Amino acid sequence: MTHPCLSCGACCATFRVAFHWAEAQPDNPDGPPAELVVPLRRHELAMRGTESAPTRCVALAGTVGVDGHCSIYALRPSPCRALVPAWEDGQPSPQCDKARVAHGLEPLTPDTWRTIAAPG
Ligand code: SF4
Ligand code: SF4
User: Would you call the peptide bond into 26 cis, given omega within 30 degrees of 0 as the criterion?
Assistant: First the structure.
Protein backbone atom coordinates (compact mmCIF):
# COMPACT_ATOMS: atom_id res chain seq x y z
CA MET A 1 0.00 0.00 0.00
CA THR A 2 1.20 3.52 -0.77
CA HIS A 3 1.03 6.41 1.63
CA PRO A 4 -2.66 7.08 2.44
CA CYS A 5 -2.38 10.81 1.72
CA LEU A 6 -1.69 9.93 -1.95
CA SER A 7 -5.18 8.48 -2.32
CA CYS A 8 -7.07 10.85 -0.02
CA GLY A 9 -6.90 14.65 -0.08
CA ALA A 10 -9.89 14.96 2.24
CA CYS A 11 -8.26 17.61 4.44
CA CYS A 12 -7.51 19.70 1.34
CA ALA A 13 -11.25 19.75 0.59
CA THR A 14 -12.41 20.42 4.15
CA PHE A 15 -10.45 23.13 5.94
CA ARG A 16 -9.51 26.73 5.31
CA VAL A 17 -5.76 26.88 4.87
CA ALA A 18 -4.59 30.26 6.18
CA PHE A 19 -1.04 31.44 6.79
CA HIS A 20 1.15 34.55 7.03
CA TRP A 21 1.72 36.29 3.69
CA ALA A 22 5.49 35.90 4.00
CA GLU A 23 5.13 32.12 3.55
CA ALA A 24 4.12 32.47 -0.09
CA GLN A 25 6.12 33.29 -3.20
CA PRO A 26 7.73 35.61 -4.18
CA ASP A 27 8.81 36.40 -0.61
CA ASN A 28 9.46 32.74 0.08
CA PRO A 29 10.66 30.79 -2.97
CA ASP A 30 9.94 27.54 -1.10
CA GLY A 31 6.30 28.50 -0.47
CA PRO A 32 3.08 28.25 -2.49
CA PRO A 33 3.09 30.06 -5.87
CA ALA A 34 1.49 33.51 -5.74
CA GLU A 35 -1.22 32.58 -8.25
CA LEU A 36 -2.47 29.80 -5.92
CA VAL A 37 -3.15 32.05 -2.92
CA VAL A 38 -5.71 34.72 -2.12
CA PRO A 39 -5.78 37.55 0.45
CA LEU A 40 -7.73 36.57 3.56
CA ARG A 41 -7.19 38.97 6.44
CA ARG A 42 -4.57 41.56 7.25
CA HIS A 43 -1.21 39.75 7.12
CA GLU A 44 -2.89 36.51 6.08
CA LEU A 45 -3.31 34.60 2.85
CA ALA A 46 -5.31 31.44 2.14
CA MET A 47 -4.81 28.69 -0.37
CA ARG A 48 -7.11 29.56 -3.24
CA GLY A 49 -10.29 27.52 -3.02
CA THR A 50 -10.19 27.14 0.77
CA GLU A 51 -11.24 30.71 1.61
CA SER A 52 -14.95 29.93 1.41
CA ALA A 53 -17.31 26.99 0.95
CA PRO A 54 -17.36 24.71 -0.95
CA THR A 55 -13.80 24.07 0.09
CA ARG A 56 -11.29 22.60 -2.32
CA CYS A 57 -7.71 23.76 -2.50
CA VAL A 58 -6.68 24.69 -6.03
CA ALA A 59 -3.50 22.65 -5.56
CA LEU A 60 -5.43 19.44 -4.83
CA ALA A 61 -5.11 17.09 -7.78
CA GLY A 62 -7.31 14.10 -8.47
CA THR A 63 -10.45 12.87 -6.76
CA VAL A 64 -10.83 12.87 -2.99
CA GLY A 65 -10.65 9.32 -1.64
CA VAL A 66 -9.44 7.91 -4.95
CA ASP A 67 -6.25 9.57 -6.10
CA GLY A 68 -6.45 12.95 -4.37
CA HIS A 69 -3.05 14.40 -3.57
CA CYS A 70 -1.21 17.69 -3.22
CA SER A 71 0.27 18.89 -6.52
CA ILE A 72 2.67 21.30 -4.75
CA TYR A 73 3.74 19.02 -1.91
CA ALA A 74 7.24 20.45 -1.53
CA LEU A 75 5.83 24.00 -1.55
CA ARG A 76 2.80 23.47 0.69
CA PRO A 77 2.31 26.04 3.51
CA SER A 78 2.77 25.45 7.22
CA PRO A 79 -0.84 24.43 8.10
CA CYS A 80 -0.57 21.57 5.61
CA ARG A 81 2.77 20.48 7.04
CA ALA A 82 1.29 20.59 10.54
CA LEU A 83 -1.68 18.35 9.70
CA VAL A 84 -0.21 14.92 10.35
CA PRO A 85 -2.18 11.90 9.17
CA ALA A 86 -3.66 9.93 12.05
CA TRP A 87 -1.33 7.37 13.65
CA GLU A 88 1.55 7.96 11.23
CA ASP A 89 3.68 8.89 14.22
CA GLY A 90 1.63 6.91 16.72
CA GLN A 91 -0.66 9.81 17.61
CA PRO A 92 -4.33 10.45 16.79
CA SER A 93 -5.17 13.32 14.45
CA PRO A 94 -8.69 14.66 14.98
CA GLN A 95 -8.42 16.90 11.91
CA CYS A 96 -7.47 13.98 9.69
CA ASP A 97 -10.32 11.90 11.11
CA LYS A 98 -12.81 14.74 10.72
CA ALA A 99 -11.84 15.38 7.10
CA ARG A 100 -11.94 11.73 6.11
CA VAL A 101 -15.33 11.14 7.75
CA ALA A 102 -16.71 14.29 6.09
CA HIS A 103 -15.85 12.70 2.74
CA GLY A 104 -17.23 9.27 3.57
CA LEU A 105 -13.82 7.70 4.24
CA GLU A 106 -12.90 5.52 7.21
CA PRO A 107 -10.49 7.15 9.66
CA LEU A 108 -6.95 5.84 9.53
CA THR A 109 -5.91 3.37 12.24
CA PRO A 110 -2.56 2.14 13.55
CA ASP A 111 -3.08 -0.89 11.30
CA THR A 112 -3.09 1.40 8.26
CA TRP A 113 0.62 1.99 8.70
CA ARG A 114 1.57 -1.65 9.18
CA THR A 115 0.59 -2.40 5.59
CA ILE A 116 2.67 0.38 4.03
CA ALA A 117 5.84 -0.81 2.40
CA ALA A 118 9.03 0.62 3.79
CA PRO A 119 10.84 3.00 1.38
CA GLY A 120 13.47 1.43 -0.79
S1 SF4 B 1 -7.23 13.69 5.62
FE2 SF4 B 1 -5.53 12.58 6.60
S3 SF4 B 1 -5.03 10.86 5.21
FE4 SF4 B 1 -6.29 12.36 4.07
S5 SF4 B 1 -4.77 13.64 2.99
FE6 SF4 B 1 -5.32 14.66 4.93
S7 SF4 B 1 -3.77 13.97 6.42
FE8 SF4 B 1 -3.69 12.56 4.66
S1 SF4 C 1 -1.48 23.11 -0.51
FE2 SF4 C 1 -1.51 20.91 -0.92
S3 SF4 C 1 -1.59 19.96 1.14
FE4 SF4 C 1 -2.20 22.11 1.36
S5 SF4 C 1 -4.46 22.13 1.21
FE6 SF4 C 1 -3.63 22.53 -0.86
S7 SF4 C 1 -3.53 20.51 -1.86
FE8 SF4 C 1 -3.72 20.17 0.37
Answer: yes
pLDDT value, residue 117: 57
Residue 88: which pLDDT band, with cuts at 50, 70 and 90? very high
Mean pLDDT of 49-67: 98
- Ligand 2 center to residue 89 CA distance, Å? 20
**Which residues' Cβ are closer than 6 Å to ligand 2?**
12, 17, 47, 57, 59-60, 70, 72, 76, 80
pLDDT mean over 43-57: 98
Q: Write down the domain spans for the chain.
A: 4-114
Q: Flag whether the pTM goes above 0.85.
A: yes
Residues of the chain by 3-state class (helix, strand, coil), percent to 5: 30, 15, 60
Q: What three-state secondary structure class fits 114? A: helix
Q: Find the 65 Cα to ligand 2 centroid distance in Å.
A: 15
Alpha carbon nearest to ligand 1 atom 8, residue: 5
